[in-house]
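Write out structure tokens for Ribosome maturation factor RimP.
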Amino acid sequence: MDLKERIEALVEGYLQGSEYFLVNVLIAGGKSVPKLIIWLDGDAGVSIDKCAEVSRWLGKRIEDENLIETNYTLEVSSPGIDQPLKLFRQYKQHLGRNLRVTLKDGSTKTGKLEEVKETSVTIAETAKGKKKENNPLLEIATTDIEKAFVLISFNL
């Protein structure tokens, strides 16, 4: 088991049975001072306090198991707006928000997330130049999604 897999297993085990879940682990930097970036999320988001708790716990486990023999940087946070939704579980907390979905065929769909099912998501597709009422509903199979981003609106 390589370092990334071990970190994933540790964090997933720690979060098991809770409302929180691991989104991704990235190991960056060189071997001399690796940087571990851990992204967490929760069914209702994740607080900075939870990220700090996981960081302290994981740091201790890394030390106890001597997983990294050199100095390292550990960063635990929630995915930012520049991060795509990676897990199906993340979609539920974004109901009612606008998404930009890139499909595996290369096309892009934009619209308000209306429904999340086991095998699909439904968006009210925003068509250019049309009023926002009566937007067509588009059901997209999760297997057809390449990546999806939550769009942030600053309209007041």
